[in-house]
Amino acid sequence: MHPFRWVPADGGRxxxxxxxxxxxxxxxxxxTVLCRRSVTVARGTELAWLWPTCAECNREAHVLVEAE
Length: 68
Known about the structure:
This protein is α+β, with helices and mostly antiparallel strands. The protein has one helix spanning about 55-65, and strands spanning about 5-10, 10-15, 30, 40.
């Protein structure tokens, strides 16, 4: 399992390393993502997972995977 997870937020797919012990992030919750922005979590619908992937979060996610 990777040290991050993908979350639909602010009209895109962002990755976060924020620790969540139980369940998913709450809709409307503010989290910090790998692109170092604070974003608001959206509902994880089928369409939300088709939103564009944040390029900076994607780059940072690859760095984390390579470091594992």
